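the three lines:
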Amino acid sequence: METLVSTFIYRHTRILIATERPTEFIDLTDGLQRLVAEAGIVTGYANIHSLHTTAAIVVNEHEPLLLEDFASVLERAAPDDGRYQHDNGTVRTVNLTPGERRNGHAHCRALFLGSSTCLNVVDGRLVLGRWQRIFLAEQDGPRAREISVLMIGGGR
Amino acid sequence: METLVSTFIYRHTRILIATERPTEFIDLTDGLQRLVAEAGIVTGYANIHSLHTTAAIVVNEHEPLLLEDFASVLERAAPDDGRYQHDNGTVRTVNLTPGERRNGHAHCRALFLGSSTCLNVVDGRLVLGRWQRIFLAEQDGPRAREISVLMIGGGR
Amino acid sequence: METLVSTFIYRHTRILIATERPTEFIDLTDGLQRLVAEAGIVTGYANIHSLHTTAAIVVNEHEPLLLEDFASVLERAAPDDGRYQHDNGTVRTVNLTPGERRNGHAHCRALFLGSSTCLNVVDGRLVLGRWQRIFLAEQDGPRAREISVLMIGGGR
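prediction for all of em together
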């Protein structure tokens, strides 16, 4: 499909979210569809990037029991009570902050999930399958989180 | 490298695939290279997005035994016969469909793999390393699958 | 935020890296920020793609002990001494090269990590959180590695 566009649009937005639990999947889909509509982009990309190293962006189904399953497989891949050198205060010297949490497991889980997802925009909407929803995947909450959304494309 | 382009091109295509096995890696590379050539894009992006929550897009080598190894590590990360709440018909109430399959494991595997990949287009071709091929990674087949490919960039 | 741009820029660069160890996380962030500045892109994307099937692009914190933790969880997900059909010289017939290493584990780890990341550029810089750094994640070094970076966006 070719698209005729008359203007070229760049729109950058930051989304702020206060997460409430250690592991949490927060559905961003409706908010992102609104941002695309407000930007007036007909055809283009929306790149959604978590600005954190213990919270990821993922796309999957929003079914509450499935989100519990995701937490379980992530716990198995990088257990909360595993041994992480990152959490070893007797040897670590880099990037230390006051009151830092034990969160080696959360970094490892975020590594597997990835920090961003680039989505297609067609006919003024994010292209998603029937069951696809976009989530911020919190792995070290509760925390204040920030997401960078850059939409670029052609408008009417 | 700077590129001089005289036109700006948007091209969206959907690829339909009927998968044949529960786990299957379907090589999309040649078809995608053709789409890029047909679109006439010299420099730009091709964002390839699976419209499903149990089938991913991945880039790796097309060596048949290696694809078996991938199936094995994914089986270990999220076993087919594991216990998934998503498959627990006695407690689940959300997004139920008639004749739904047990597929909690497939969602978990797709979560690890990711639903999309953005590739660079340079000199009219997808930039790929010697061994890199692009796959639809089916985790819950056989099914009818659909992939959204949005190419944006400059043409001659 | 809307951005006014007067020119449209495409810039493709290849980064060459000689890795030194079997598993290694090489911080590309400062070099990539320089590339974005040199390209003169104010608002746009930088898509960073490893041209290899045993080395990935990831975003996380640059804390040396944490990088050891990453190596450990990847080792658990796809052990170096596991059995991979890809390494079975008695049955494999495809893509064989002289002096090929046993590297089934490295392919599997790269599969989980992903070959590329698309980042947002705003105000002439890659948008990154406080702790976020971009790494080439070598899983089968030492090797000569190549990364494709395509920056597209509006300049002043």
